[in-house]
């Protein structure tokens, strides 16, 4: 059985954990809890949880120990989308082809839903006894040194032309940090000096940067129906993107170079790396 078949089982695992962690819609405050479930169960591909399970395969670990990590990283990803879509941020009306949370509910509920999803990620990990180092990896990736800091840089870079180094730093924080956490959390207890930890980190950093470059390309080349949100929104907001600074062809070449770097890192891992390769290909070649 290839990873594409195993992926369905992993998605079922993480969605079962998410369903167990999330309060029922009938629990007060009902509107808030309905918004949480709307944000989480809205057709996401679950790429980050799949990366956690694939990383476990690559080092010979059981998926059972990854369930809490996979659910937590998805909750943080979902919270980030809820907040990114807000009028104060990207002001988007669509997410995955559906009204964004602040449109389906209201702005205040969307803010609170994002807050609750972020908090629930760490509550769930603690209750399910995830390792403290894994919790630390995820917290660092989500905070001002990672995803939140990257979003702040993204907003600050609007209508500017940052240097290549500054743009890459923003991408590594805004998008790459959470992808890296998803990949290295299963081996967090081994420490950063462990060879598998280093190889997984290098793979994740390359794929995370490629992910954002491809995202920028899709905003230009994809349709609203394909990408599930308004196409051309980056240009409309004068966002600093890789294609805007370096052009379409250079962006595609750089994404390809990063993919090759990711494959080189996989060659140093002891287990089955088919899942990480499959997901890397899916990230770089995706159309949505």
List key phrases describing it.
15 helices; two-stranded antiparallel ribbon; 2 strands; Farnesyl Diphosphate Synthase; 69% helix; 288 residues
User: What is the share of helical residues?
Assistant: 55-70%
Computed CA radius of gyration, to the nearest angstrom: 18 Å
CATH class: Mainly Alpha
Q: Structural class of the helices, strands and pairings?
A: mainly alpha
Largest sheet, strands/sense/barrel:
2 strands, antiparallel
Find the CATH superfamily. Answer: Farnesyl Diphosphate Synthase
Name the assembly state. single chain
Percent of residues in β-strands: under 5%
Give the number of DSSP strands. Answer: 2
Q: Tell the overall outline.
A: globular
Mean pLDDT: 95
Strand order of the largest sheet: 1-2
Describe the protein.
The chain has about 290 residues and is mainly alpha-helical. Helix content is about 70%, strand content about 0%. A two-stranded antiparallel sheet has the order 1-2. Helix 3 (about 45-60) crosses helix 9 (about 165-185) and helix 14 (about 250-265) packs antiparallel against helix 15 (about 275-285). The longest helix has 27 residues, at about 195-220. It is globular. The two termini are about 25 Å apart. The model has no long low-confidence stretch (mean pLDDT about 95).
């Amino acid at each position: 059985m290839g990873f594409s078949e195993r992926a369905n089982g992993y998605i079922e695992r993480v969605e079962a954990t998410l369903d167990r962690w999330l309060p029922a819609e009938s629990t007060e405050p009902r509107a808030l809890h309905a918004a949480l479930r709307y944000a989480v169960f809205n057709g996401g591909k679950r790429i980050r949880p799949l990366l956690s399970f694939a990383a476990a395969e690559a080092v010979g670990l059981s998926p059972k120990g990854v369930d809490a990590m996979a659910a937590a990283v998805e909750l943080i990803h979902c919270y980030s989308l809820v907040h990114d879509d807000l009028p104060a941020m990207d002001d988007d009306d669509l997410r995955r082809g559906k009204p964004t949370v602040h449109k389906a509910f209201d702005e205040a509920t969307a803010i609170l839903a994002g807050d609750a999803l972020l908090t629930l990620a760490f509550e769930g990990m603690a209750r399910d006894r995830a390792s403290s180092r894994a919790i630390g990896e995820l917290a660092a990736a989500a905070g001002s040194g990672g995803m939140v800091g990257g979003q702040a840089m993204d907003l600050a870079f609007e209508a500017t032309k940052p240097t290549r180094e500054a743009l890459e730093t923003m991408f590594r924080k805004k998008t790459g940090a959470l992808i890296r956490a998803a990949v290295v959390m299963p081996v967090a207890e081994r420490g950063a000096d462990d060879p598998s930890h280093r190889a997984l980190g290098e793979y994740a950093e390359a794929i995370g940067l490629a992910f954002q470059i491809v995202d920028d390309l899709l905003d230009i080349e994809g349709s609203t129906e394909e990408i599930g949100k308004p196409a051309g929104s980056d240009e409309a907001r004068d966002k600093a993107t890789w294609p805007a600074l370096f052009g379409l062809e250079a962006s595609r070449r750089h994404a390809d170079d990063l993919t090759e770097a990711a494959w080189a890192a996989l060659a140093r891992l002891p287990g089955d790396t088919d899942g990480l390769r499959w997901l890397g290909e899916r990230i770089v070649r995706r159309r949505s």
